[in-house]
Write a structure and sequence with these properties.
single chain; about 425 residues; alpha/beta; six-stranded mixed beta sheet; about 30% helix
Length: about 425
């Protein structure tokens, strides 16, 4: 069965007074409400969170992406307290009026200041958190704790904040179902990345270096309104199988296969994860066409199996086993042949629930739910000869999975266009 495509947006990525478009106030509110509801279900009234993407999910704020330089104390039944880094602390209170409680963040720069200085700063950090929890009568309750180091945990325990629980899995549960506005953010990001693919298609020709394609990708992404536009991971010719190093400054040559990972291009923080395959200066031969057909058939099978109530085991069986390439274990294709949740990110890839692969899904299946957003990718080829890749972004609807990225996927694209 041919995959179905998601409906395209009827609005652009700019602000308008005459048309209802992305509603950021509603998105912030609905994300926070979902987080609070699930915190209550787990009996966790407060969360101390330092992961930048999760801070943005909870508060709508983005900022400096250095470990533990900024954090939030987020409550199930109180307004959040934002501990912000340096200049952001001074700049943001009047720019983000939905946050009413601001404090300067105490950070020890991953102990680059020396262990004694780090412990002293952490002691002050812990005292601040202790006082905020005590003032709300929460000191003896379970406190969610995420993306901090052992220095922070020890300092909090010494300060009397002892009931710390790892919140990372709860945060995964919170983020797995996307609101309508979150889905629209991903659709917008997918529309932008289609334009980036087109720019690559026009510029991939003999004599061009893969690093030049990086510049093309970044410029095109920003020109079309991306919040962030990474260069993409370009592999060509004999380095296309199995996926490994990229950005080698290799010159494209006639007959080369070429693909890139346009992953991490964001709109409102929501990130793409897509691959397409091109061939430089000639039509693909029979072997290359067969490789691509196998990849596309596999991904189509995975997409067709994604329905609310079905499981990742139902989908994962459509991926070929690692032994197909003579590999001994499924871990040898981890993240090369996979479906993974996509959503809000900052600075690095953060996989949301679910994961689809033969390594875990067959024995530990996860249930698909309406509102999940997933990227599905696979590859095929021959070592030091060449390889092909394809990745699509899908949203799970009540009727099944629909593809959000509309750029051509039916065949290897001959470049330049």
């Amino acid at each position: 069965m041919a995959p179905q495509y998601a409906s395209k947006l009827i609005y652009g990525n700019e602000v308008s007074d005459w048309q209802e478009r992305l509603n950021t106030d509603r998105m912030r509110r609905e994300r926070a409400e979902r987080a609070k509801r699930i915190m209550r279900e787990h009996g966790i009234p407060a969360l101390l969170e330092a992961n930048s993407a999760n801070i943005r999910y909870l508060t709508g704020l983005k900022g400096f992406n250095y470990p533990m330089c900024r954090y939030t104390l987020f409550f199930a039944d109180h307004d959040p307290v934002m501990y912000e880094h340096s200049g952001h602390f001074h700049q943001m209170p009047d720019q983000a009026p939905w946050i009413t409680e601001w404090r300067p963040a105490r950070a020890w720069l991953t102990a680059a200041c020396g262990i004694e200085a780090a412990k002293d700063e952490a002691r002050q950090f812990a005292a601040d958190i202790h006082d905020e929890l005590k003032s709300r009568g929460l000191l003896n309750e379970k406190i969610g704790f995420s993306a901090f180091d052992g220095i922070a945990r020890e300092a909090l325990t010494n300060a009397g904040v002892k009931n710390l629980v790892d919140f990372s899995l709860v945060m995964k549960e919170i983020r797995k179902i996307k609101t309508a506005d979150e889905i629209d953010c991903l659709k917008t990001a997918a529309a932008i990345v289609e334009g980036v693919w087109y720019s690559i298609w026009e510029n991939a020709k003999p004599g061009v270096r893969d690093t030049q394609l990086s510049g093309v990708a970044t410029k095109a992404g920003y020109d079309m309104g991306a919040e962030s536009a990474p260069p993409g991971g370009w592999r060509s010719g004999p380095s296309t199988f199995d996926r490994g190093f990229h950005q080698s400054s290799r010159l494209l040559q006639t007959g080369d296969l070429l693909y890139g990972s346009l992953c991490g291009l964001t709109y409102q923080g929501y990130a793409t994860c897509t691959y397409r395959t091109f061939i430089v200066g000639r039509k693909p031969n029979a072997k290359e066409l067969d490789w691509y057909k196998r990849v596309k058939d596999s991904i189509d099978g995975v997409i067709d199996a994604i329905k609310p109530g079905a499981t990742t085991a139902d989908a994962a069986k459509h991926f070929p086993p690692a032994s197909s390439w003579g590999y001994d274990e499924e871990c040898e294709v981890l993240a090369s042949e996979i479906g993974h949740g996509i959503g809000l990110t900052q600075g690095s890839t953060n996989y949301d629930i679910p994961i689809i692969n033969r390594q875990w899904s067959l024995n530990y299946p996860q249930v698909f739910e309406e509102g999940m957003t997933i990227a599905i990718e696979s590859r095929e080829g021959e070592t030091r000869v060449g390889g092909v890749r394809l990745e699509n972004m899908v949203v799970v609807t009540k009727d099944g999975a629909e593809i959000m990225d509309h750029f051509p996927r039916e065949e290897i694209l001959v470049a330049p266009r």
